[in-house]
Design brief:
Keywords: Hydrolase, Membrane, Metal-binding, Metalloprotease, Mitochondrion, Mitochondrion inner membrane, Protease. Belongs to the peptidase M76 family. Has a dual role in the assembly of mitochondrial ATPase. One of its GO terms (biological process) is mitochondrial protein processing. This protein has helices at about 15-30, 35-70, 70-80, 120-140, 150-160, 165-175, 180-195, 205-220, and strands spanning about 90-95, 105, 110-115. By secondary structure, the protein is mainly alpha-helical. It folds into two domains: about 40-140, no CATH class; about 145-228, no CATH class. It has eight helices and three strands; from the N terminus they run H-H-H-E-E-E-H-H-H-H-H. The termini are far apart. Helix 2 packs across helix 3. The protein is globular. Helix content is about 60%, strand content about 5%. It has a three-stranded mixed β-sheet with strand order 1-3-2.
Length: about 230
């Protein structure tokens, strides 16, 4: 009696097995299913790194376009240069930021652009204009940022002149008043900025500083002839 052939599972060629494993691994990375804890952590790290790089590339691209083509930004950069405080591209740094800010100015480090906080290029333009006005004030008027009246004046001017308080921006923030909305926005945002100053210990102190310099600083449109 002849022996019957024993059955066995067919063996996949190595190249098919490798292709399947590559497909399975790619699907797991895409869905997050079937990954070990360490693989999940690595997946999240790579996603975060990819987002950081994408945000940075977009921020840098918008920055170059604004420095070259925005009438507002080129005007401010030119006046900073005329005042002896030229701002090269390297002084405008794109970085990720906390949720409650879009930019910042430091006399020692230049201007921060929060790469992950801009709704669009126009938002970035307004933010950059705001910070360049601070830079202009620091250059021309030797602002003492620890002096709340000095700080309040520059915040009033920056909010007033940069486009930060235009009507469409206020609507997005949930403010709909038509009567003197611009002035209300400038004052509100100046108070919030002064309140973040380490030398300010209360909302009342911030409001007092803004009120004390309001008339002279709100009407000061330098280097513009009028509100942009």
């Amino acid at each position: 009696m002849s022996d019957k052939p024993t059955s066995s599972s067919p063996t996949e060629p190595p190249e098919q097995s490798a292709a399947f494993e590559k497909w399975r691994s790619g699907l797991a990375q895409f869905t997050g299913l079937g990954l070990s804890e360490s693989e999940k952590a690595e997946r999240e790290r790579l996603k975060a790194q990819g987002k950081l790089e994408k945000d940075w590339d977009k921020c840098e691209g918008w920055k170059r376009q604004l420095m070259d083509y925005s009438p507002m930004i080129t005007f401010l950069l030119n006046h900073l240069k005329l005042a002896g405080c030229a701002f090269p591209s390297s002084a405008l740094q794109c970085h990720p930021c906390p949720e409650n800010r879009a930019g910042g100015f430091s006399p020692d480090h230049g201007i921060l652009l929060c790469q992950d906080r801009f709704f669009n290029k126009k938002h970035m333009e307004d933010t950059l204009a705001h910070e360049l006005i601070h830079a202009f004030d620091h250059c021309r008027f030797k602002v003492d940022w620890g002096n709340l009246r000095h700080h309040a004046c520059s915040e009033i001017r920056a909010a007033n002149l940069s486009g930060d308080c235009r009507f469409t921006r206020e609507v997005k923030r949930g403010f709909y008043a038509f009567n003197k909305q611009h002035q209300a926005c400038v004052k509100r945002r100046a108070i919030l900025s002064v309140l973040a100053n380490p030398a300010c210990t209360s909302p009342e102190m911030a409001e007092k500083a803004v009120n004390e310099v309001w008339e002279s600083c709100f009407t000061d449109t330098r280097p513009f002839d009028e509100i942009y």
